[in-house]
Amino acid sequence: MTQRTLAGCLLGGLLTLAGGRADADNMRSTLRCGDQVLSHGDWLYEVRTACGDPDWAQHRVEFQTVRYPVRTPCGNGSRERTCITYVEETIPVNIDEWTYDFGRNRFVEMVRFEQGQMVSVSTLGYSHKS
């Protein structure tokens, strides 16, 4: 496995832990659209197919630093023996936040995606639509 591939795998795990800025009380990992339930890890395409176009959408790129282990030859010159060192890399992460206002008697929902996958759903309050 290359260092970049390993970094990508570890980034996914780190982003899963970090995902979102909202309070834990109004955050969850599922979104209901009609009879479909979308959940953590679903792709932008799947959400758009099930829920339609969002009422509001924002895209940005954040730079996040990931730390991952790498096997390297140990300092004694032996190629047979490997040691673990840690490498840090700052990488760009695509962030998309889509807001859905499903109308009266429903909460407004904000869906956060990182690298195109759903990481959280936040409840923003009651709808203002009639």
How would you sum up this structure in a few lines?
It is built from two helices and seven strands. It has 130 residues and is α+β, with helices and mostly antiparallel strands.
Could you explain the architecture of this structure?
- The protein is 18% helix and 51% strand.
- With 130 residues, it is α+β, with helices and mostly antiparallel strands.
- It has one domain (3-126).
- The strands form two sheets. Strands 1-7-6-5-4 form a five-stranded antiparallel β-sheet.
- It is elongated.
- The chain starts with a helix and ends with a strand.
- The model is unreliable at 13-23 (pLDDT under 50).
Features:
130 residues, two-stranded antiparallel ribbon
SSE blueprint:
Layout: H1 3-18, E1 27-28, E2 30-33, E3 36-39, H2 44-51, E4 56-73, E5 82-101, E6 107-114, E7 117-126
**Helix percentage range:** 10-25%
What is the topology, as strand order, of the major beta sheet?
1-7-6-5-4
Give the averaged pLDDT, no decimals.
Answer: 82
Structural class: alpha+beta
Number of helices: 2
The counted number of beta strands is 7
> Beta-strand percentage?
over 45%
Along the chain, the helix and strand elements come as: HEEEHEEEE
Categorize the overall geometry: elongated
User: How many structural domains in the coordinates?
Assistant: 1
Uncertain segments: 13-23
Report the radius of gyration as a whole number of Å.
Answer: 19 Å
Could you state the oligomeric state of the chains shown?
A: single chain
Report the major sheet.
5 strands, antiparallel
> Alpha-carbon distance between the termini?
53 Å
